[in-house]
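Listing S7. Sequence submitted for prediction.
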Amino acid sequence: MTDEIVNRVANSKLMVIDLEDYYPDGNRIVFDVKDWLYEGFVLREREFRSQVKQYDWSQHQGDYIAITCSTDAIVPAWAFMLITIQLEPYAKQVILGNLTALETTLYQDIINDLDVEPFKGKPVIVKGCSKKPVPTNAYLMLSRRLKPFVKSLMFGEACSSVPLFKS
């Protein structure tokens, strides 16, 4: 008598979504404007515009850019706008903030465009462990996006999931 091992997870209607699978490829760059400020704190318009004009923006072809100022300088909005205009032909995305804010923005676009049709009326597990920097905000956005459509929503792995929602 042979007891056949049956993979009940594979045979179930359970759907697994892994946000790591949606991670967009490309370099993430933090562009710090402090180096273009007088003593790292004062924006002098003429010198700042000169730096912007001389900089080789093409080196950021296909990059994702987070513009920031790592000092306590007060940088006017137009300065960030000027840099963004220069990056527009090259960068895939430009935001004001840090790398976490950049990843959150990228995932917001991805989740907003996510086709929820395959998940309708099904139990869904959102896989939690990832090797790529998936921001926690992405999991929150995904749960809000899926909740109206799924039968149930869980977090983790099929063998040890945490129930979050059941319709």
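Caption to Listing S7: primary sequence and predicted structure tokens for the chain studied. The beta strands are 15-17, 28-32, 64-68, 93-96, 123-126, 152-157, 160-166. The longest strand covers residues 160-166.
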